[in-house]
Each structure stands twice: as structure tokens, then as C-alpha cells.
Amino acid sequence: MQKVVVDTNVLVSALWSKQGNPNRILEMIFLKEIVLYYCPEIMEEYKNVLSREKLNFAEEKTLPLLQEITKNAVLTEPATSTVFFSDESDRKFYDTAKENDAILITGNSKHYPDEPQILTPFKFLQYINYRP
What we know:
- The chain is globular, with a radius of gyration of 14 Å.
- Helices cover 45% and strands 11% of the residues.
- It has one domain (3-127): Rossmann fold (3-Layer(aba) Sandwich), CATH 3.40.50.1010.
- α1 (8-16) crosses α2.
- The chain has a 5-stranded parallel β-sheet with strand order 3-2-1-4-5, with helices on both faces.
- It is α/β, with parallel strands linked by helices and 132 residues long.
């Protein structure tokens, strides 16, 4: 089964639109068609970002999402890489993906090294030959 790490921007996009590729990816995680990996720092970022006032997400939307992630995903403790990051907050996603041989799904691929396992939601769905 395909292993993935999901950047926070994908969760935000999924909550904004139930029609887009990010939401399809979340559905696949919850249907156990793909396996999500995360580390404690990723979960902390998910919680912090999804609770930001400016995003205006209702807790009754975000809390079940976070509970589903902790119930269905694999918690891991990745080693810290030495790859350069202009924004160190992105490293946890990259390291978790590398450590677990997973694909990193992000809407901000420019923030990461140019590597084949780092894909946008659209490219990920193409990669797995997703058919709705």
C-alpha cells in the first residue's frame, strides 16, 4: 500500500473544498487506500494551523479530522536530515517521508528539494492512476 506524508497546506485545502484533489487524498487515507505517516511535530503543526482564527475552521470540522488522522495514521520518529531548508518548519514533513519511504504530498513543492517523491496533490493522484 502506498505510504504518504501530507503537508498541512493539503489539509487546509481539503477543508476549504470538498471537490478538490486534497479532499480526495484525505478520503483515500480514511478509506485505508493509502497510509498516512506523521511525527509528533507534524501533528502539532496540524493542530496549530487548523485552529488559527484567520482560517475560521469550526472545531467540529477540525477535531474529527485530527482524531481520524491519529486513529488511522502511523506515528513515527524520523531522524533529522542535513538537507538545506529555507524554512525549517518544512523539514519535519520531508524527514518523515524520507525515513518511511513515503511520498510527500504538498501544495508548496517549491519549498522542498526537487525530488521525485515530492508531489502536488494532482501529481500524486496521477502517479497512483487514481480514477474517481
